[in-house]
């Protein structure tokens, strides 16, 4: 297994463990729990096989759902991100979309912010839409998407900052 | 064939995504009762819309037959009205059961767990667990309700048990379908000390909140004693053909919540 794959495997496992053991019961402001594990969906290599990535995203969501007793919102949101990620990479990075570790080095910071923002926004929107599963709860969906999204973004920015420096 | 395989290979990521999404939806439906009821509502709504369109075409060609049925039922009701002198039929607030008219837009008798869809829903005050009858007998119990349609567990569903009794002596038992013949139900839990004859009338017992007492179900068409158990195995021939029904009444029991809270 190459160093790159080992590093990704570590992020997969650490993301799940931190999510399940720490962030799931964080209850910031009483009810906001960041969805930190999606850092894996951000840092996964840009030029990897998409089929493999769809399966990995699905497994990631499924494992988190099973361990946090969630009905299945994480699975569906991660799976959707797994499928649309190449479009988001092309949209956010343009000509630099082929840089393998584009999320960590070699690309402009604005592109990375746009990419991370889109992934977090879409993921959280799907996650809360599935959780509430009702048109009447759209205000709750939006409120939770924004609050949780901000918290997730802060945690992921700090973590990515550390990785970039190393 | 080669072209189909090529097309599949070309879209393999999308197909993988759809397969996994389908799996996720089944996963979420099985793990959460809330999502299960939402999915059921959605499915009832979609199938209701589809079958409602087909129904309105069929309805046009069946108008004469339906008209005859309505006329006949009106005649029977009028007879009942004339004969019930001691009951104040003008004061409807005393009625325990309120009836809502509905039409079956989708009916099935082919599976062992049959459901049907009626064209009345939440908007028309239909709620879950209301009994459904026709002019000739019982149809089922409402299982899920969307805005305009409701799904009904048919009496021809192996999971449904209905309290029933002999009209002649009030011996009661539970009625269910064995999933084989769509005209025959099985009446269980009748002790052999009771007198059973072919042709005996079976009606609802009124011991559940779903149906009032005395709604005609059918007649005994066959019976045998289960050796060593002390019970009869009684076969009931339904008075109505569930698969042919179109007009039904959904029954609302005024005291259903109260009865449920005590059960």
Any overview of this molecule?
The complex is a heterodimer of chains A (166) and B (263). Chain A is mainly alpha-helical and 166 residues long. Chain A has one domain. Chain A has six helices and no strands. The longest helix of chain A is centred in the C-terminal third of the chain and has 28 residues, at 138-165. Chain A is globular and about 40 Å long. In chain A, 40% of the residues are buried. The model of chain A has no long low-confidence stretch (mean pLDDT 89). Chain B has helices at 2-10, 12-31, 33-61, 63-83, 256-262; strands at 97-106, 113-118, 131-133, 138-145, 150-157, 162-166, 172-176, 184-188, 201-204, 216-225, 232-238, 247-253. A six-stranded antiparallel barrel of chain B has the order 1-2-5-4-3-12. Chain B has five helices and twelve strands. Chain B has 263 residues and is of the alpha+beta class. Among the domains of chain B are: 2-31; 162-240, Rod shape-determining protein MreC, domain 2 (Thrombin, subunit H, Beta Barrel), CATH 2.40.10. The interface between A and B is medium-sized, with 20 and 16 residues.
What's a quick, concise take on this entry?
The complex is a heterodimer of chains A (166) and B (263). Chain A has 166 residues and is an all-alpha fold.
**Whole-number radius of gyration of chain B?**
22 Å
Count of DSSP-assigned helices of chain A: 6
Biggest interface goes to:
A-B, 20 and 16 residues
Provide the residue-averaged pLDDT of chain A: 89
Instruction: Give the tally of β-strands of chain B.
Output: 12
Structural class of chain B: alpha+beta
């Amino acid at each position: 297994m190459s160093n790159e794959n080992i590093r990704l495997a570590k992020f997969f496992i650490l993301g799940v463990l931190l999510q399940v053991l720490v962030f799931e019961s964080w209850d910031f402001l009483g009810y906001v729990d960041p969805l930190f594990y999606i850092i894996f969906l951000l840092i996964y290599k840009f030029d990897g096989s998409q089929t493999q990535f769809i399966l990995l995203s699905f497994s990631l969501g499924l494992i988190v759902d099973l361990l946090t007793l969630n009905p299945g919102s994480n699975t569906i949101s991660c799976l959707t991100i797994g499928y649309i990620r190449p479009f988001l990479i092309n949209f956010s990075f343009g000509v630099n979309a082929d840089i393998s570790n584009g999320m960590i080095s070699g690309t402009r910071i604005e592109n990375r912010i746009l990419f991370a923002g889109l992934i977090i926004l879409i993921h959280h929107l799907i996650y809360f839409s599935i959780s509430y599963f009702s048109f009447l709860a759209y205000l709750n969906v939006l409120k939770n998407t924004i609050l949780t999204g901000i918290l997730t973004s802060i945690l992921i920015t700090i973590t990515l900052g550390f990785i970039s420096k190393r | 064939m080669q072209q189909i395989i090529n097309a599949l290979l070309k879209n393999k990521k999308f197909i993988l995504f759809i397969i996994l999404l389908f799996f996720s939806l089944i996963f979420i439906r099985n793990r959460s009762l809330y999502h299960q009821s939402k999915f059921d509502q959605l499915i009832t709504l979609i199938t209701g819309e589809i079958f409602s369109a087909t129904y309105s075409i069929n309805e046009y060609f069946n108008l004469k037959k339906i008209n005859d049925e309505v006329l006949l039922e009106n005649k029977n009701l009028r007879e009942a009205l004339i004969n019930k002198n001691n009951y104040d039929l003008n004061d409807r607030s005393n009625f325990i059961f309120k009836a809502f008219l509905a039409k079956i837009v989708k009916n099935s008798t082919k599976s062992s767990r049959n459901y049907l869809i009626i064209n009345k829903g939440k908007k028309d005050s239909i709620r879950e667990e209301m009994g459904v009858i026709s002019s000739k007998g019982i149809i089922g119990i409402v299982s899920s309700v969307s805005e305009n349609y409701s799904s009904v567990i048919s009496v021809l569903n192996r999971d449904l048990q209905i309290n029933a009794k002999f009209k002649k002596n009030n011996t009661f038992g539970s009625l269910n379908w064995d999933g084989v013949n769509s005209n025959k139900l099985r009446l269980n839990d009748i002790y052999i000390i009771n007198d059973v004859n072919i042709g005996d009338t079976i009606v609802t017992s009124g011991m559940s909140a779903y149906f009032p007492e005395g709604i005609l179900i059918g007649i005994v068409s066959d019976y045998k004693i289960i050796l060593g158990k002390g019970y009869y195995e009684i076969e009931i021939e339904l008075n109505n053909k569930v698969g042919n029904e179109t007009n039904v009444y959904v029954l609302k029991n005024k005291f259903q919540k109260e009865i449920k809270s005590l059960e």
